[in-house]
Amino acid sequence: LTVYLLDLLGVFVFALSGALAADRRRMDLFGFVVIALLPALGGGTFRDIIIDAPVFWLTDLTYLLMCLTAAVLTFITANAIHRAGQWLLWADAAGLSLFCVLGAEKTLALGHDPAIAVIMGVMTAVVGGIVRDVVCNEIPLILRQDVYATAAFAGAVSYVALVALQTDSGIAIWIGAAVCFTVRAAAIRWKLSLPRRGGPPPDQSGP
Amino acid sequence: LTVYLLDLLGVFVFALSGALAADRRRMDLFGFVVIALLPALGGGTFRDIIIDAPVFWLTDLTYLLMCLTAAVLTFITANAIHRAGQWLLWADAAGLSLFCVLGAEKTLALGHDPAIAVIMGVMTAVVGGIVRDVVCNEIPLILRQDVYATAAFAGAVSYVALVALQTDSGIAIWIGAAVCFTVRAAAIRWKLSLPRRGGPPPDQSGP
Amino acid sequence: LTVYLLDLLGVFVFALSGALAADRRRMDLFGFVVIALLPALGGGTFRDIIIDAPVFWLTDLTYLLMCLTAAVLTFITANAIHRAGQWLLWADAAGLSLFCVLGAEKTLALGHDPAIAVIMGVMTAVVGGIVRDVVCNEIPLILRQDVYATAAFAGAVSYVALVALQTDSGIAIWIGAAVCFTVRAAAIRWKLSLPRRGGPPPDQSGP
Known about the structure:
The structure is a homotrimer of 207-residue chains.
Chain A: H1 2-24, H2 29-50, H3 62-83, H4 87-109, H5 114-135, H6 141-144, H7 149-164, H8 169-190
């Protein structure tokens, strides 16, 4: 049950981030709903298709309702949300933390290899945001903000490792999510990035 | 049978719209075929994957044949088609109207919830065009032309509501398609759009 | 067994091409891994989802290991690889040749129509690269380099035709791959392109 509530929370928070992206482009209400759905449901849909599980929002309309609520709420109050400043960044970090462990948890529960569970955890967390950015014709956040997928990776690995060590899954979820959030928070706070190869600044004009 | 013929017509019309997009970019014949396939088969493929039905064009090669015909026809006669002016916009509206009800119909027939049927109707109608635009590196039409997904939504809702009211499915398809076409036609004719939030014009430069 | 080794080789080569794309954008190590996965596994994943086969890398972690190796190798030695000049173009041609026949082979083996096998061969070969380019916000290679999908098409058709003529599948794979590689090599060497319709140069600014 707790897992279910966390999942709903993650969907809500990611839908909010999508709706705010729609707001930046001054889209209409329908656009808010569509762009809110992409990050909120995209990653989990992708995961379920790959591991051949029934797509999670087909049988439980609550997920769609959360997205709709987030979209309408943002449509009405976006100015207030924007004034809250860094709010979106932290909400996004919370969604990332929840999705990476919950994606790994579902994949493990279906009997897949731990390595696959880690990959699916990362994908659940980042694919939706990639699709949102691609549809909005932006270079995905994951290519711009360095320690993003890495944080999801740390969270998913922690969860899978703890479960392998016989930790109770409910506790492992919290620890995994906390690891991901801490890594992401540190990256936001101190603008960390992974080592890069030396050389000139990124070539934005393509190959 | 009528549903089948309408489905083929929708595929043909959307393939035409894809091939014309390829023509605008002066692609070669192979590009015409590839870009024609995306809007014509993309939405339905996505729907079938999500609801875990066999992908519709795997077992019936007629769909691929329609796309091929549309691509070759456009390759030969594109100048004539361009001279026909607004033609593409109306063909696209017809495809939109057919796909939104047929997508909802197939989803309902597989026993899914009416709300899911509406969403799948909209997705069948708009996802192919989004993929076409994303591959061509354009901001999708759906983000630029306001009452587009909304028209598909109106059509799918009408169809699902009529079926819930025990209307014959064949009749409901025509009415649903007519509702979608009317909404889209009104939007084209009077350049309607959904209410937007006030503020400066859209920020094209990203977040 | 040979098919399996060729498949791994194709994955490795495509992962290399993805990692080099990540290098051009000065991404961090995690970006290298993510962008390496897209072309290497994207096409086959898409094929398996469409024909409803289990996704090939879920049950055999060797594929993921190849991608990881290619990404790390490129991260360490990318300057050397870049100095090798045209190397990437030929590696990409080899990957294209392997994937188009192996995609067709798998689809045929599952009992699908030869026409479907050809399409799936082409998709296995080109979809991963399209996704890589779309995520990197570039216009896909397939829209810029003309005889690319066409080469994959030639290879897949050759393979399917030879199998239909009762040729041993192992031999048909080599001939099909050779046909694809020859077509692609000729296109690279003499900058061939399919016939285009006359008119002004491509409009890069959208419709």
